[in-house]
Design goal:
5-stranded antiparallel sheet, 9 helices, alpha+beta
Length: about 290
């Protein structure tokens, strides 16, 4: 792999398969993202970035893309992730407006295949939760009929109206620049998804310290400004929260990334809250989650 000439300092990639470096090119600080052999991922990143920019969603500039070499140079955005911010209602409204902007994204035509968070994908994510959180992280046999109940939740959520979604819309993928300007990161997995998906992701975000009251404000603000019903929002949020627990279980047990341990408790609390309005068939999850050291 040949990078532009300069001094490159590697950055922690966390859960990403990509490698990141920060350096200076032509006098400006830049981020180099090495996609390796993931040509589709690189193409999607550039394509989605341009669509988001066209609809007014703030995203980093791309200075150079070298698909043949597997890397891009982009703006290195200095700021703090919103996981470390003090959330106000004005900030919540601004972030929900970003979700609406992403949902308005259009013009997907001659680029990579437009993916969809359909029934098959949602079923896979909830099966992933069963394997990697229930059976892996908790080391517990799955309750009888849980797989059937999870499939039913997936099909219900898949049936809701769909719009474009970021796919991983939470406070660590949102940066606040100096002066309060926001920037959206890690958007390359954008796809068609249930219309409340990104807003529901914010409402079950375990990365920020402010908890249940903020969750409810996200929910109420979204419901007041959209056609989404409360049950639709809550079922979407439940699916999203279970999906996150599956991811944390996988990262902890299979990838040995202990940092994700601190997010399990907050995510489990959000899931327990949502179980109160979930299908009765998912009640078997409650004693498993209540047994966690939350």
């Amino acid at each position: 792999m040949t990078y532009p000439r300069g001094d490159w300092t590697p950055l922690a990639a966390d859960a990403s398969a990509r490698r990141y470096f920060v350096g200076r090119v032509e006098g400006r600080e830049v981020l180099l993202a090495d996609f390796g052999e993931d040509a589709d991922g690189l193409e999607r990143f550039v394509y989605v970035r341009n669509l988001l920019d066209d609809c007014g969603v703030p995203v980093p500039d791309i200075y150079e893309a070298r698909p043949e070499e597997g890397w891009i140079l982009q703006e290195f955005v200095r700021g703090r992730p919103l996981s470390k911010a003090r959330w106000t209602e004005d900030l919540q409204r601004a972030v929900l407006n970003l979700a609406r902007g992403i949902g308005s994204m259009e013009g997907w035509c001659d680029g990579p295949e437009l993916l969809q968070l359909d029934g098959a994908r949602l079923r896979f994510e909830l099966a992933f939760f069963k394997v990697h959180f229930i059976e892996g992280f908790l080391n517990s046999p799955a309750p009888k009929d849980l797989a059937t109940a999870l499939d039913a939740l997936a099909e219900e959520v898949a049936a809701y109206p769909q719009v474009m979604a970021h796919r991983d819309f939470h406070s660590e993928n949102l940066l606040e620049r100096k002066g309060g300007r926001l920037v959206v990161l890690d958007f390359q997995d954008a796809l068609l998804a249930p219309r409340a998906y990104d807003a529901a992701s914010l409402a079950v975000d375990p990365y920020r310290k402010q908890g249940r009251q903020l969750d409810e404000t996200f929910r109420s603000l979204w419901l007041a400004g959209s056609a989404t019903g409360s049950e639709e929002f809550d079922r979407t949020a439940l699916q999203r929260s279970l999906k996150a627990l599956g991811t944390f279980g996988y990262q902890i047990t299979r990838r040995k990334r202990a940092r994700y341990m601190r997010f399990v408790g907050p995510q489990a609390l959000r899931t327990l809250d949502l179980l109160s309005s979930s299908p009765a068939s998912l009640a078997s999850l409650r004693p498993l989650l209540e047994g966690l050291p939350i």
